[in-house]
Amino acid sequence: MSTQVLANRERRPQTKTGEKGGTPPAGAGGAGQAAHAAVDRYRWIILIGLITASIMEVLDTTIINVALPNMAGNLNATPDEIAWVSTAYILSNVIVLPMTAWLSQRFGRKRYLVFSISLFLIASFFCGTSKSLNEVIFWRIMQGAGGAALLSTAQATLRQIFPKEQQGLVQSIFILGIVMAPTLGPTMGGVITDKYTWPWIFFVNIPIGLIAMALIIGFLHDQPNLAKAGAIDIPGIALLTVGLGSLQYVLEEGKRDDWFDSPTIVRLTIVAVITLSALIAWELSPRNKAPVVNFKVLRNKDLTAGLILFLALGFGLYGGVFIFPMFVQNVLHFSPTATGLVLLPGGLATGAAAMFCGRALNGAKPLVDPRVLIFLGMGIFIVSMWMLGHLSPQSGEPDTRLGLIVRGLGLGFLFAPINFVVFAAIKGPEIAQASGLINLARQLGGSFGIAVLNTYISNQEAMHRANLVSYLNTGNSNFMARQAGLAHSFVSSGYSQESGRQASQHVLNNMVNGQAATMSYNDAFLLLGITFVIAVPAVFLLGQAKKAPAGGGGGH
Length: 556
Fold this sequence. Notes:
Elements: H1 3-11, H2 29-59, H3 68-75, H4 79-82, H5 84-96, H6 100-107, H7 109-129, H8 133-147, H9 152-161, H10 167-195, H11 200-203, H12 205-219, H13 234-253, H14 263-284, H15 301-330, H16 336-361, H17 370-388, H18 397-412, H19 415-424, H20 430-469, H21 477-492, H22 497-535
């Protein structure tokens, strides 16, 4: 054994076998020590590989959206049909996420990660070469299933291979990519679609994924003789698949099917409630010796509070990314390129805030209580929603850019501190379970956000339009004067009296529609802010992260 390896072992405090920061499990022998030392030496290279894979996965949830109209034309699909290209990916991703800890334990962390990246790349290639809508949807399902591990298993791995005193910086770097990717996705998708063709949105994954896979194969090692998962929990997997699949379908398709006016939505809602309730009961049952999802980890109040906060974060992150492009392109008439450019500074602000949090939380003892950073982030985010909730139809890029920068700062102060507190309270094999549940909460929060905001905006727009139209009558002198002035200007331009009157009514109608739409989006941004206000009490459930013991990351 080399002198360096012996030195590393001497610096590392001896803890109980299998604990974080401890020695390799008994029985691992020289192979376990070699794997442990190799991961210690190359952990920063492994970090690059895991972040690259994770960014690729998150990017695919938003980069595809701007290409859907082009795909619909090429594949002869309706808008409702082509939406399944996005729905299929999220559907399978949500189903697999809670199972990632079990799959990683059963097949080995490295093997499972490499398989997931391979599946993701194969599916990406066949998505780009598909000639029919059904082909694309099938391979998007495969892509989503492969992508689940690229977040949860990657995050759990980073928690296991880095010592606690480096977790603040490491998690901030990891989350930097996770938060910025959804923001940059639409911009990249628009550029690729405009300059090339939509299949390149999928083909671009291949070189990125190959780099990530090479780094993981070359430098990540599992400990030998680790305990494997027990018997396959077939009832749990079935209930999980049916329950989350039904719930995700309801969230994705509810708006298009008029929610509970649709018998399909009603039936699937009932199925989701029954099967998810049965899943929780079965997974917690003493008769289930090998649960596919270990809900017992929720007894940890820090994790439970973290899940609540990540639901709110998913709601705010994905909900905001969903409604902002719609607002500025449909109401303020920004071009896709301008939309992407106005989003960019907010993404950079997120990165700056995340790196600040990483430095503040890094070391054996954090410089700042992470709960203070979380409160600060929530306050900044609420302020940003107030700013975006008071825009007008005349607002320009500077107005929206400032609100987005403030929003980005708020998000940057949230993700890393919440992760830091939650994972500081989780030990051993529970880390992978917690990571899967956290990413599931974020994804479901985004699905709830998009579903709620989509319906909310439609309802609010109809209400605001009805209120505004009530003022357009002959008894309103301001309205009559404005209409007469518009009609006179059209007549002066060569219109007849009747056509001038009709043109003036058309202009006023467009003004009312624009104002009603603006007010509805304003309400939606304010709703996002209210969601964070409601989630504030969850911060009080979080414990204070104590001084981290020195030592290397165990569990390699």
